[in-house]
Amino acid sequence: MSLLAKLQIGCTHYSLRDCPVPGFSGSDSSPAYSPSNSALFVGSYDNNIYKINGTRPFSVLSKNHGSGGEDSPKLHESTNTYVAWGNLRGDTLDCYNMVTDEMLWQFKPKEKGITTSGVYYDYAFVGTSDSDKGVLYAVDMLSGKEVWSRQLEGEIWGTLGPGFYSDEVSDVDLVCLGVGGNANPFKDTESSIQCMDIHTGVTAWSASVGKQIQSRPSFGKSSLFVGDYNGCMYSFDVHTGAKVWEHCFGKYLSNVEGSSAVLTLSDGTEYVLVDSFTGYLYALHGSTGDEVWKTKLGNPHWMGGGAASSVRVVGNKAYVGGPTGVWSVDAETGEVLWKYEVGTQCGSSPVVYNGIVAIACEDGYLYLLEA
To answer: Which residues of the chain have a pLDDT value below 50?
Structure first.
């Protein structure tokens, strides 16, 4: 492992002058890599989306102002576009051309406060959190026009975006996300995971969990996996919504904020890899929820989390951000292969491409490392 580049992508310390989003610095946005453009796109708490040359010499090519923030750009390669919303609770979902940086359309929901977005098939999805009601919209990627909308019983959080599941055999296409709940660990407010038909918005099933879901659901062969602010991971049958298992990491400050990843072994066994505010990266058995291994990534701290990054699995290696840097771990055994110390939280999710790991951190820099 070696550092290939360190690029400033916005504010480097907590300041209203430098960071317009109060209480945040740097970036928690997950970089997205476009193979057709050899470019990375990443948001920043300075309200910019940065376009980075993804090959040597690594450099900032351009930036779009007003759509950056907590959201991660969602790419749509076939139209050479991406979408993102701004700040912590943006008012519009913006679509840009990846080559020219031109804004092609804006979608403005009737409600205030966008909290989630995603792209799948030829749809952009955008969810809102306004009072105690949330609305999920499906938007045509080409025109920016609403295809369908669905009001849900509770606010939509799922900041990392909805999860998508397709099964050609049973002809099932689902969009799934967390609804309702409260991020406060001392408030007992139930939330749910809800799955809808991607093309119509009709509810397929919903199931209760403990507290607010910020993470994106991940999927095994026939299971949905998701974590919540109660510090628990859940497994549901993806077709029926029946709960398969529940595994909790602790009573307080064990929140699961990042999204999990699924490793499939050669014999078909599935491991679910996820980190939590306990500061550990865990592997749970996909069928039973039993702990297979855990690896410490750092010390938890009050409401900041030991680890809040989403896990990336490539081959048999897992990559994840922690409280002080970036880790690479053997996904089958939990052995730490390498770590790169940054000195601050790396809460975004790393992207791995062409032997390179790219991750944004709260010190205001994008790090590019040799995988």
So the answer is: 302-304
